[in-house]
Amino acid sequence: MTLPHKPANPFRRSQEPFLVEHIDPDIVRRFDTRSSRPCEFCREHDSKFRERHPLDQMVASSRKAIASAHLTEDGYVRHRMVELRQIAARAPLTAA
User: Fold this and answer.
1) According to DSSP H, which parts of the chain are helical?
2) Residue 52's pLDDT is what?
3) Strand bridging mode 36-38 / 58-60
4) 18-40 residue pLDDT tens
5) DSSP-derived 3-state class of residue 46
6) pLDDT tens digits along 58-74
């Protein structure tokens, strides 16, 4: 049994980078790890940081260690999850 040939997506040109709305387009175009570094925030606050895929650990070296500086969407999501865990762990503010 042969599988039918899957036609190319007519709505996406192969030369264009994928659209990732929450990440700066310049970062999406650049997956060169020579211009990146591990995210200090994630390394310090995420106990599972070393288990991540290497690209998911990296942020663009020209940016601060913020979620949108991550090179991958999975890195972005994991960064945001750590931030949200920190917010949820804070003592609630009481009205005085």
Assistant:
1) 25-29, 40-45, 54-57, 73-89
2) 94
3) antiparallel
4) 555 666 666 555 555 667 899 99
5) coil
6) 998 888 889 999 989 99
Long-range contacts of 72-76 (CB under 8 A, 24+ apart): 73/20, 73/22, 73/23, 75/39, 75/42, 76/22, 76/23
Parse the chain into domains and list their residue ranges.
25-88
Q: How far is CA 37 from the centre of its chain?
A: 13
Residue that has been written with the tokens 């650049």 in this structure: 30
**Model confidence over 7-16: pLDDT tens digits?**
555 554 444 5
Nearest residue to 41 (alpha-carbon basis) of 62, 67, 60, 71 = 67
CB neighbour list of residue 70: distance below 8 Å, 6 or more residues apart: 23, 27, 39, 56, 58, 59, 76, 79
